[in-house]
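Quick question: what would this complex look like in 3D?
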Amino acid sequence: MSNLFFKCINPIELNDLLKTLNFKSNETFKDTKIHDIKDLVSADKDSITFYHSKKYKDFVQSTKASYCITSENLKKDLPKSCKSIIVKNVLISTALITEKFYPNSINDDFDNDVTAIEELSFHKDTKHGNNILIGKNVKIGSNCSIGHNTLIEKNVIIGNNCNLGSNIILRNTIIKDNVSILDNCVIGKKGFGFFPIKNGNYRYPHIGLVEINDNCEIGCGATIDRGSLSNTVIGKNTFLDNQIHIAHNVKIGENCIIAGQVGIAGSSIIGKNVKIGGQAGISGHLKIGDNVEIGGGSGVIKSIPNNLKVMGYPAKEIKKFLKENR
Amino acid sequence: MSNLFFKCINPIELNDLLKTLNFKSNETFKDTKIHDIKDLVSADKDSITFYHSKKYKDFVQSTKASYCITSENLKKDLPKSCKSIIVKNVLISTALITEKFYPNSINDDFDNDVTAIEELSFHKDTKHGNNILIGKNVKIGSNCSIGHNTLIEKNVIIGNNCNLGSNIILRNTIIKDNVSILDNCVIGKKGFGFFPIKNGNYRYPHIGLVEINDNCEIGCGATIDRGSLSNTVIGKNTFLDNQIHIAHNVKIGENCIIAGQVGIAGSSIIGKNVKIGGQAGISGHLKIGDNVEIGGGSGVIKSIPNNLKVMGYPAKEIKKFLKENR
Amino acid sequence: MSNLFFKCINPIELNDLLKTLNFKSNETFKDTKIHDIKDLVSADKDSITFYHSKKYKDFVQSTKASYCITSENLKKDLPKSCKSIIVKNVLISTALITEKFYPNSINDDFDNDVTAIEELSFHKDTKHGNNILIGKNVKIGSNCSIGHNTLIEKNVIIGNNCNLGSNIILRNTIIKDNVSILDNCVIGKKGFGFFPIKNGNYRYPHIGLVEINDNCEIGCGATIDRGSLSNTVIGKNTFLDNQIHIAHNVKIGENCIIAGQVGIAGSSIIGKNVKIGGQAGISGHLKIGDNVEIGGGSGVIKSIPNNLKVMGYPAKEIKKFLKENR
């Protein structure tokens, strides 16, 4: 699927990409046109992909990409159909190539190309407050309400029967039906992802979106960052309380209840019917199973299988936690 | 006392209420007019009340309500003057009845019925910024200041000598004298209280208010949710730092000092002269005594008697905590 | 150096200052003019200073101040050139004197003396959104962008190539070049510092600033309070994620990376190249060395030497933490 919001500049000649990486090799690469950069799973034969950690070994073997940015020691895991491009730092090289395909995904300045909502025509039944600005490429379904001073920057699709509060900032976000977003949320900005380099940090591009599914409620002051290469997703019927932070690429399943001031770090995946108590934190790149319950204040630093109740820092089975702390 | 802000539709025939609950019984109930739904303590003989947990046994015996929503196993605790209405889920039934008495307490969409402050007449000495909107049923005392872009939605009473910052959203809130509310606070929205039901969550009504007493300071970015059946209360001279979350029905005593990023979950009661360090969290339905000190980062999961100093997660006596962690 | 933003009313006669303190002594003080109140290190011979804790013994011996507010038991540490003014509560007395020199540092009401940005002339290349208000004494460098509804109150200097998001509130802040401030930040308000007195809290004056150095990024919803007597400082190339709270007088070094929802309490000093994981908290008045790494969720209650990796609550060496929690 092509990217809904960020324009892909393509095709790009492989040799141009290699030049971007200052790539030097004894091998010669036949010049060819590359259409996109994708992760191992979604790449097709016209794509370039990347492989930077053994964790993804299961995926690499079936990738359809013709080229893969990787390192010397991982090279051997690639299928024959996929030619390796060996670099020093796989993630920085991937970021550079992504930026080349999606140059406008780097700039996250405020959206200056906005119009007062009164000058636009959405559904007649849209109820809206004062001082609302709307960017390009915004759709709003029927029977929605939008509170005062809310800013809907470019690239936002809102379904039917949605209630947006006041002082909200949205961009690069898809909201399905019957969703409530409460006051002061900031949704869809780039994530906190970058590589420390000499004299600063190199921010990698964020070409993913935020996707909020049917019947969700997002509490006041939430920050939900958009994904880097994939989307940040909030599943159907999931409710978030106030002051929650959801980092880039996080995926939360259906019917979850997440209490106030919880933070979920980048790329973690939360199952269905998960309950998370107030102020709990979940580290990045973890997998939390279905029906898991995480006690308030917990610090989760390991993945959790389905149906477990945990508490503590680091989080452990709740029975064990309570027994140890009698 | 009648509800200050949410209109009570009354009286309602008892049999109408029973129909709402799909209530079936061999007993017949004489039809009678019910005037309100109240908690066990504040109910009078024209009220219906509810009793869902042994925790409230002390209160149930002296309730003046004529009818009580309860469960089969709790029924026996009721005084003779109070007739039980046995249901499967006491809290959901209570929510349904509350919604019937207070239908307008369910909708928390942004307040569209607002007026620019320049078009209204408050005290001549009111100092105010730009882009301020005021809802119906708002009173502002003398010598107050209100910052830019602040939104005072319906049902707000502000005393004398109060300073409100900018970008604040207020509704359903009573603020007494000499109170400072700093920038970006959201005060008076419904709490994060609901019951998971098939295909979603059933939000229970919030007919309580937020009450902020004399000389308080509320730091930037605070969220203070209004109560469900009772009020959320901040006591006299209590100071809150930035980014604090106070859930519905919480009551905080006088002269408390609460540092940044603290979270207090629903219905907990905090005594007088309590000091709470930064990022500490307090679970719901707890009682924290007077003069308690809670160390920064603590996770409080049990009630704390007066005069204790605690720290840790779970919080324990600070001496014990420090000894164990030498 | 004179205070950049807060006007010092000087000189003040020493006897006037002593009257403010209700100071009584058998000693007589020759009347003399005092020019400022400063900390032990930056004071010169025309200044009054203060000394309230043994922790600062190293500094007191070389202070150049001619007068020092202190207590009976600390008096002996002063050099001969510095005359002691013995009071009951050194910090309250210091606050009273500071207020006398800087009367306008006490009032933190919203800035009413603002102008719409369209009516002002900054660099032609300034890109700005709607509904932006600017206070007195504001400078903006070239090639900056400022998002919608952002409020730049009095006393703000912004360098070149800075990007400010929307809904930001700034005051009493110096921002150097190439800095990004994301949406909803509140930067430069007074800190949460006061002394409990009878019937309330006595807030001490905040005459410090916030200083954000080159290439920093400050995430959404951050609160960074200005210093009391010294500045709050964010070092070059330091990146802050969303929902972070930085209290008054905190100093953070260069090249630090601080993840979401971290809180740093008043007057702590963080070294260079420090990494802090999400939701970690750092108590006040600590010193965190260079190259320290603090795991997500940690609670740091002691100073940390250079190059250490810590985790836990209370934070300890990460190897120890992981071993104990296997």
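Answer marked as accepted. Chain C touches chain B at residues 109-110, 112, 114, 131, 133, 149, 151, 167, 169, 184, 186, 189, 192, 194, 196, 199-201, 221, 223, 225, 243, 245, 247, 261, 263, 265, 279, 281, 283, 299, 301, 313-314, 316 (CB under 8 Å).
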